[in-house]
Give the backbone structure.
Amino acid sequence: MFAYIVRRAIYAIPILIGINIITFYLFFVVNSPDDMARLHLGMKHVTGEAIQKWKASHGYDKPLLLNGDAGGLGRVTDTIFFEKSVRLFAFDFGFSDDGRDISYDISQRMLPSLAIAIPALLLGLLVNITFALLMAFFRGTYIDTWGVILCVVLMSVSGMFYIIGGQFLLAKLFRLVPISGFAGGIAAIKFVVLPVLIGVVSGIGSGSRLYRTFFLEETGKDYVRTARAKGLAESLVLFRHILRNALIPIVTGVVVILPLLFLGSLLTESFFAIPGLGSYTIDAIRNQDFAIVRVMVFLGSVLYIIGLILVDVAYTVVDPRVRLA
């Protein structure tokens, strides 16, 4: 297994390089260094001298990908891409275009994102699996039918509706929780309750319906019929056999979304004014801060690749029949 993980990590290097090149190219197709200078200087009619000074101070005064004036390796190394992107592989994130330490910002904003994402994930799994098991246990009955209808209705509602509706009902009308904001320490609980609740409710429809499909697919297999033929109770068959084997696709879905736990929710954090990594990314895009955008895309790619590796490792834990060479 160790050799497999090392091999996958090596395969990830060209993928990350390709992602960096594509992100770099797309960003500078939309905004040239001169456009970035005008934006950050905050003036419509800025002088050419001021633009050149800003570009030089932020390292944007060199060619993008290839420096035709340099010799040897300098043709590649003496470029904006090399100086801004290669350091990411050493997790040296440098500074944003407005001078902030990106590593420090990430360390400060990571905890608010995790304070919302982890409870929402764990509670969502508990609720979705329980509801899906209930529908599978009473399959073909009114409970199953109305459960599926409820899932379809919940899936059809926009995530914006849950956020705005939750803020109006629980925060503005009943004043049970703050409508937005964040605080450190134990006081953070009252600020994350509503975002977590909305995250759980908005995911019930798609999650429960998907897990119900997994459970019903296992129900028709030979090992389930054998267990029933031996006289095992339906509840025992459901929890001991069906649930255990259905965990394989469930684990796959959970591990793949692990990067989102770190990177935060763009929409939720923006609407609730949570100072997490999601709102950090949105602000960077709005301000056209390429340094931050590049770092967040790189981190997302790294975490997603790690998630895929963890999926394969998790298979060996959930299903002993699977072994990685």
Remarks:
- Residues 102-137 form the longest helix (36 residues).
- The mean pLDDT is 85.
